[in-house]
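Email to the structure team, subject: Armadillo repeat-containing domain-containing protein model.

Hi all, the expression group asked for a predicted structure before they design truncation constructs. Nothing fancy, just the C-alpha cells so they can compare against earlier work. One-line instruction: predict Armadillo repeat-containing domain-containing protein, return C-alpha cells.
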Amino acid sequence: MGEETSDESRTSIDKAIEAISSLISLSHSIKSFTVKWQLIRAKLDDLYSGLAALSNLDSSGHDPSLSSLISAVLTSLTDCYDLATRCVNVTYSGKLLMQSDLDVMAASFDRHARSLSRIYSAGILSRGFAIVVSKPGGGACKEDVRFYVRDLMTRMKVGDLEMKRQALVKLNEAMEEDDRYVKIVIEGNDLVNLLVGFLDSEMGVQEESVKALFFICGFGSYNGVLVRSGVIGPLVRVLENGSSVGREASAKCLMKLTENSENAWSVSAHGGVSALLKICSCGEFSGELIASSCGVLRNLVGVEEIKRYMIEEDDTMTTFVKLIGSKEEIVQVNSIDLLLSMCAKDEQTREVLVRQGGIQELVSVLSDPNPLSSSKSKEIALRAIDSLCFGSPGCLNALMSCKFLDHLLYLLSNGEISVQESALKVTSRLCSLPEEVKRIMGDAGFMPELVKFLDAKSFDVREMASVALYCLISVPKNRKKFAQDDFNIGYILKLLDHDDGRNASSDSGSTKFLISILMSLTSCNSARRKIASSGYLKSIEKLAETEGSDAKKLVKKLSMNRFRSMLSGIF
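Reply from the structure team: attached below.
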C-alpha cells in the first residue's frame, strides 16, 4: 500500500472528527454505565481537540507519521460505536464484560490523545498552524465565541511552547474586552484545569496563564471553580519562584481568593504565609508585588491561628512598620491596612506595634511635606490612628509624644477635603479626652479651625465640628480664649440667623448644636455680654419659639444678663 496523500489524510481526519461528534451524541442517550461513559466522553473531547487542530493544516503541513495514528483512531471509534449501540439497546451479554470493554476503550482513546500530543510536542505539526480562527466581533453569537475559545484551547493543548503562549495572549485579550469569554472559559472545566496546569510551565506560558486566572478571579462567583481546580498550590509556587510579572499576578489572584476566609488555610498549608512574609521583608521586589502581598496577608490574619503565627515570626512587625515609611503610596496604604487588621481588638499586638515604633511611623505619613502626593496615605494613617490609639493608653501616649497635634492641625487647615474630614474625625475623638488634652488643643489653635467647619455642606461634618468645639469650650480657659475673638461669636450668631440668605444650608440639627455652643459660652461673662449686645437677640428669641427648650434656656440666660445690666445702670 502506497503512502497516504495529503488529501487522503485530511479526509481521514475529517471522518474521525465527524465520528467522534456522532459518538458523543449517541453516548448521551445511554442510561447504563453512566460513569464509564462520562470518562469515555472526556477522553473523546481531548482527542477531538487534538484532531480539530489538524483541520487547520494546509497541504504542506501533512506529515506521514499521522497516518497510522488516524487509522488506529478510526478503528477504535468503530469499536466504541458498537459498544454504545449495544448499551443503548441493552444487548450486551454481561455487565462485568461490558465494564471491562469500556475500560479498555477509555484507555485506548487516552493512548491516542497522548500519542497525538507527543507529535505536537515534537514540533512536527507546528508549521501547520498558519491558519488561525479569527476572533468574533462584538455582536457575535455565543456559539461563535465558544468555537473561538475551543480553537485557542486546542492550540494550548497540542501546540509547542510558543504556540501555547500566543493562544494564552489571545485568550487574555478576548477576556479583557468581553466578559462572555470569561464565562465560556469557566463553563469548560478542561480549560480551567489547563490554565492551572500551566502555572508549573515555562516562564512565558506561566505568566500568561496567571494573567488569565486573574481575569477570572475578578468575577467572585467563579472563584469556587478555581479553588476546586486546585489553583492555590500552584499560585503559591509562582509566588515563590515565578518571574516578577507572574508573582504580581499570582499575589493579586490570591488576594481575590482569600477574600473568602475558607481559602486562608489552603494558602497557609501550601507555604503561602512564609512566601508572602519573605516578599514583604525583601527590598528587591516591586511596590506592586509587596502591596498585593500585604493585601493577601490582611485577608489571612482574619484567622487567629495564622495571625499568631505571623506575630511570632521574627521581625514580622518590624517589617510591616518599615513598609509604612515606603515612598510608594500603594505600599503605605496596604501595609497600614494590614496592621489595622492585625491589631484590631488585640491589645497585646498593639503593644508590640508601639514598641516597634509603629505610631511614630503613622505620624510621619502625616508629616509628608507634599500635601497632594499622598492624600490616600494620610487618610488611612488617620483612620489607623483613630482605630488604634484611643482604645489603648500606650498607643495614645506614643501618639501625643511625637508632635501629632501639630500635624493634625495642619491637615485640618490645609489638607485635601477628604483628608480634612478624616482629620476632623480624629480631632473630635481627641476632644473627648481629659481636660489637660483639651487645654493643649485650645492653646494650639484648634478652635478657630473648627469654627470654619460649622457651615460645611455635610451634616456629619457640621455635627463633628460642633461637638468638638463644644467639648473644647467646656474648659474655662478655652472658653475665655474663644470669646476674645469677636469673629468666633459673630460667625456662630450669623449661622443662627435664618433670615440671612447665606445660611440656606442650615437646618434644625445644626441649629441645635450651635445653640449648645452658645449656651456653654454664656458661662463666660465677656461672651455673654457680646451675645446679648450683638443685635441677634431677636433672632435667638424667634428660634426659641420653634427650637425647643435649649433655645429657651439660652434666651432666659441672656435676658437675666440684660436685666442685671439695667439694674446696675439704675443703682
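Residues 3-122 form one domain. The chain has four domains: 3-122, 142-313, 331-421, 474-570. Ping us if the truncation boundaries need rechecking.
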